[in-house]
Design brief:
single chain; alpha+beta; eight-stranded antiparallel sheet; disordered C terminus
């Protein structure tokens, strides 16, 4: 399913985990055999603790009170979903094990184990690194940026595909922007029955939107001298016929 293009200049696991946690809208909580799902019910503190606002009759309150001291009492699950319509839209899943404690009418979750599951496989994130990490500075704007790029600038996406090695474009039917962060842009290469992802690294990290604009323009300038990918040329020629 993967492609051969090197995955370079990517965020570390701790930063990626904090990014997923910061932008996820929904979460599933399991505690003492009780599993509940919520949307828009959690906030995150600077050190990575999760505050859950749940109904007064939630079974999670009882589970938090009955859990043995100093032992993990709950599992929180978050999904990172691509904002553009592609096959297999879940880009990563984040699992937090830890303790739920009543706190001012809500529940405060303190993680003791963090696991980030990506296409490349699961990674156990160091807890100190998770606590100290910060979300990607472009995370809040990513959905808007990617949907705008896909819907309003398909010509730019095609030009960017010129930076992809020809073997990664073999039998490609569509190229879609899948993700963007301060370190680079990821393209999804779709085929009839498969897909793969290729990362285009920026020449330097982008910490805000003006810097991101400059980095993307630099990639487009780099692509300008490249020829139209043969795989996409054949696709268009076949479609014209």
């Amino acid at each position: 399913m993967g492609d051969t293009q090197d995955w370079t200049a990517a965020p570390g696991a701790a930063e990626r985990a904090r990014t997923v946690l910061s932008v996820a809208w929904s979460c599933a909580v399991t505690a003492d055999g009780v599993r509940e799902e919520y949307a828009g019910a959690h906030t995150v503190t600077d050190d990575g603790r999760v505050r859950l606002t749940v109904p007064d009759d939630s079974g999670l309150f009882a589970a938090s009170l009955c859990a043995p001291r100093q032992e993990p009492s709950a599992l929180l699950e978050f999904a990172d979903v691509a904002p553009v319509p592609v096959r297999n839209r879940v880009r990563a899943r984040l699992f937090l094990s830890g303790r739920l404690e009543p706190s001012e009418g809500a529940l405060l979750f303190r993680p003791t184990r963090v696991v980030l599951r990506q296409v490349s496989g699961p990674v156990v994130v160091d807890l100190d690194e998770f606590t100290a990490a910060r979300p990607d500075p472009l995370a809040e704007a990513e959905a808007r940026l990617l949907t705008h790029l896909a819907d309003a600038h398909p010509d730019a996406v095609e030009r960017l595909s010129r930076l992809v090695r020809p073997e990664s474009l073999h039998a490609a039917t569509r190229v879609v922007p899948l993700a963007v962060d301060r370190h680079g842009l990821t393209l999804r290469i779709e085929r009839t029955r498969a897909h793969g992802d290729v990362r285009l690294p920026f020449h330097a990290p982008a910490d805000d939107l003006p810097q991101l604009t400059e980095r993307v323009h630099a990639l487009l300038a780099q692509a300008a001298a490249a020829g139209c990918p043969r795989a996409l040329q054949r696709q268009r020629a076949d479609g014209d016929g």
